[in-house]
Design a protein that fits this description.
Elements lengths: L13 H10 L13 H8 L22 H8 L14 H6 L9 H11 L5 E7 L12 E6 L11 E4 L2
């Protein structure tokens, strides 16, 4: 067997030289060299930059994360998403940010600020269907015996009066 511990004055045998020659050869997965072939196989299976795996975390033992974080993580449903933030009054009234949600009070504030004023203009057109629609009227309430020809989708006709 080849000698492993050397001291000054030891005699070098042929077997020792053979071992020395093998130890300076490149290692492969089938023959020993500077490393053992089993170590070479193991090293080939390790990715560059790999690190030792940390311990498995439990709700009582730290590992990759703290035990406290593990308890929190276990309480999160699969597919859960971060809650979006609520819109403030100015954002609700502006209505330009679709990444926030609005509470009932913010919806009311937005509607109050942005709802158009619906002023109804009353026109008694009698039996004249071609009566002119008042300029600038948002909606017209037509009262007459015939359907008005100048009515728009915003208008209302009460016929037969």
């Amino acid at each position: 067997m080849a000698k492993k511990q050397w001291q000054t004055g030891d005699i070098v045998e042929a077997e020792d030289l053979n071992r020395l020659e093998t130890a300076t050869q490149p290692v492969t997965t089938t023959s020993d060299g500077i490393l053992l072939k089993t170590d070479k196989t193991k090293l080939d299976g390790i990715e560059s930059g790999a690190q030792k795996n940390p311990e498995t975390v439990t709700q009582t033992k730290n590992g990759l994360m703290s035990a406290t974080d593990k308890v929190k993580f276990d309480g999160i449903e699969t597919g859960a998403q971060k809650n979006p933030s609520k819109a403030n009054q100015a954002e609700a009234e502006a209505g330009t940010d679709d990444s926030k949600y609005m509470t009932a009070i913010r919806v009311k504030q937005s509607i109050t600020k942005n709802a158009p004023t619906l002023a109804m203009t009353v026109v008694n057109h009698g039996s004249t269907a071609s009566t002119a629609r008042p300029a600038g009227a948002v909606a017209v309430y037509w009262i007459g015996t015939v359907e008005p020809t100048n009515a728009t989708d915003n208008d209302l006709w009460i016929g037969g009066l």
